[in-house]
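User: Hello! I'm new to structural biology and keep hearing that structure can be predicted from sequence alone. Could you demonstrate with Alpha/beta hydrolase? Please show me the input and the output so I can see what each looks like.

Assistant: Of course. The first part below is the input, the amino acid sequence of Alpha/beta hydrolase. The second part is the output, the predicted structure written as tokens.
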Amino acid sequence: MKKPLLLLFVLILIQSSLYAQSSVKVESKGSGKPIIFLPGFATPGEVWNTTVQNLPNFQSHVVTYAGFGGVSPVEMPWYGKLKSDLITYIEDQNLENITLVGHSMGGNLALDLAAYFSDKIQKVVIVDALACMREVMMPGVPAEALTYQSPYNDQLIAMDEAARGAYLDQMTQNMMTRPEDQAQVKSWMSMADRKTFVFGYVDLLKLDSRPLLPSIQAPVLIMVAGQPFGPGAMETMKNQYSTLPHTTFAFAAESRHYLMLDQPEWFNQQLSSFISQ
């Protein structure tokens, strides 16, 4: 009886493994061509669970960032460490023919990796990610004007739980439709390390991925959520990615920002079709 149990344990270890660098945790499982799943800001890799289940013939590599999903925080600056440790992960694992799937900030990381590994990246899927969020949210504000220490950030750091809960309620209601999804994402965000949540967002606002775009040769699918901005959302995305050479856009008119939660059937169909071409 012991040998079959031991064999089962070994098979489980083979099928699923955990890798941890200082700023990222990566859970890998399955076999086939690799797909790296990069979640958005403050969201753990669990957000991809349903998506991964829908792709059983691929090897999934699901990332969670430092400060989120129970992963220990790291010192700021933060985003550059994520990028560096993901590059190390791909090199350590000898991954080839990679598909990158990145939601929101994960889309920026996907662009960084696609530009760095031009010979390893087969396809890229950008899920409602702006190439430069600052240009849309804070037009005319230069990156160097944004600092960790500011009255607004001090207020966010000092929030009590009631105020923080109300803040996260408003945030999640804007980003997904179903109350159960709002509650789940709020729970994940509530678990986040407070300084990573506040200062990491400064790192995100400083990003401008547009200079990388002309160098990315892999085909890229950009999924765009239509709510709450309507057709203007697609226009904004096309402007942001105008210098990306091989681009296909897919528009989900009724979805909010978390496309994989709001429109899972549409999302999975678009993703499966693109990566199987």
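User: So the tokens describe the shape?

Assistant: Right, they're a compact way of writing down the 3D structure. Reading them back into a model, for example: The mean pLDDT is 93.
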